[in-house]
Amino acid sequence: xxxxxxxxxxxxxxxxxxxxxxxxxxxxxxxxxxxxxxxxxxxxxxxxxxxxxxxxxxxxxxxxxxxxxxxxxxxxxxxxxxxxxxxxxxxxxxxxxxxxxxxxxxxxxxxxxxxxxxxxxxxxxxxxxxxxxxxxxxxxxxxxxxxxxxxxxxxxxxxxxxxxxxxxxxxxxxxxxxxxxxxxxxxxxxxxxxxxxxxxxxxxxxxxxxxxxxxxxxxxxxxxxxxxxxxxxxxxxxxxxxxxxxxxxxxxxxxxxxxxxxxxxxxxxxxxxxxxxxxxxxxxxxxxxxxxxxxxxxxxxxxxxxxxxxxxxxxxxxxxxxxxxxxxxxxxxxxxxxxxxxxxxxxxxxxxxxxxxxxxxxxxxxxxxxxxxxxxxxxxxxxxxxxxxxxxxxxxxxxxxxxxxxxxxxxxxxxxxxxxxxxxxxxxxxxxxxxxxxxxxxxxxxxxxxxxxxxxxxxxxxxxxxxxxxxxxxxxxxxxxxxxxxxxxxxxxxxxxxxxxxxxxxxxxxxxxxxxxxxxxxxxxxxxxxxxxxxxxxxxxxxxxxxxxxxxxxxxxxxxxxxxxxxxxxxxxxxxxxxxxxxxxxxxxxxxxxxxxxxxxxxxxxxxxxxxxxxxxxxxxxxxxxxxxxxxxx
Length: 634
Fold this sequence. Notes:
By secondary structure, the chain is α/β, with parallel strands linked by helices. It folds into three domains: about 10-110 and about 120-255, Rossmann fold (3-Layer(aba) Sandwich); about 270-410 and about 615-634, Quinone Oxidoreductase, Chain A, domain 1; about 415-585, 3-Layer(aba) Sandwich (Rossmann fold). The strands form four sheets. It has an eight-stranded mixed β-sheet, with helices on both faces. Strands 11, 13, 14, 15, 16, 23 and 24 form a seven-stranded mixed β-sheet that branches. A hairpin with a 3-residue loop joins strand 7 (about 240-245) and strand 8. Helix 1 runs parallel beside helix 2 (about 40-55) and helix 12 (about 410-425) packs across helix 13. The longest helix has 26 residues, at about 120-145. The chain starts with 7 loop residues before the first strand and ends with a helix.
């Protein structure tokens, strides 16, 4: 909703504190305001100030541009009268701010007060019951006007984490938070309810914590609260949103989409699809084909060949046989074929050839060995072990990652998606409100990094090469796409981000590494997940020297952290579940490169295509098209 002259708002608790600040801020936009407050003196004063502000936008109105209504918000009848009076005066209700609140008297709630009503009951009635009642009346008024409307309920940081000194206040505000977040479906009729949770703002209500405020980061400026409320009002995508404002972390949404994904159920569509996969006919042949590395070389095509191998039955105890449907292509395939991921000299490695090639795949469990009790034939499965480039592969049961569907999008979530998800969370300790730079952002892992950074509430800058890739990144919501074929990355970063970027997700290496390091802000973190520009060449992977690296890091308290996915295997299932849930909820897009690679014979073509720099999204090989079509029909 655009904040513009002529709209109308009703603010409970408008005579003091946050309610007063929001009433005046709305008036400065030319918005008519009804101030509802128990204090007649303070309420009339604010209404008078609102009229003065409105006079700058309106003249000769047939009605007052501000109303004051004296009301105890716990009196449902009088509160209903306030909404009725507002509707009769302004013909509708665009914005409702429920700001009235009290703290609990300093008497333990578990100690009864003889001869009087327990004082904590008033806290519940004002802070929670009245907010529910006022929200109810706001919804009815907005429906009567048949116009869109926004409700802002004032929660508190004490509703997000325990306030040990006042459990009743904390409980009442926690109720406001969950009540408001549960109103998301109102958006279907054009009504949005959001909750604002500032930490400690210097008001009469917060005076009880004044002695400890420095230990808690200091007072949150009222300007930050007004800014947060206006964002919740203006942003049409925010429905049921909870904004947390602190001095320590700034402005962020709580919980993040990633946190929320942990407890939301996937749609019934995906659950139904999973249940019928067991109907697929799994035929076990006497032999199958796979791609193996037969000689060590960075030239993947010359290092590999397709071989046929017998299918040995019964399956080894503790293992499962997976029918591979899709396999993922990675830049590191050339490092694997050259033996870089194995210890020992080249002569020692050569004696252990051949190696099964391929890092990742999805398929269906075709057979299980003894002592495997947690998996069944027909279960969709993902795997991240050597041997993905094969029609069938034998895997230790503990390495199986159960998934909802054996789809190519799931392949993209494996090495590419998990690297982005885990690296940003664990290596970068990503928070909200930061500037995040992602290099090679249109590739397999970059597409996940940019989206996860946006979901966490960050501004995202991305590099790529070419108009097609730039458009794909814009479609993913990237704030600033730098196409290095059309503009100079260094110049853009210097001019548009003079203070530097907070987090860099880097996968290119070489000159790009230097450029990103120089663009890193004070306290900035660079996460190195690869160096694709150095992988290929006549002599393979050449280590580079970075003169002055220590001095640069020291001067700005910066961090450069390496990230290797294998060392975080304990987090794979957790993050894969999170990614798939975000995808099934429509919060995460998965981009697959449109070029088709079918069968094991196309694996080398796919690896070379990836290293050509032409790919957009994840490059995937369909190992068995007939089988993939069968699954797709289900």
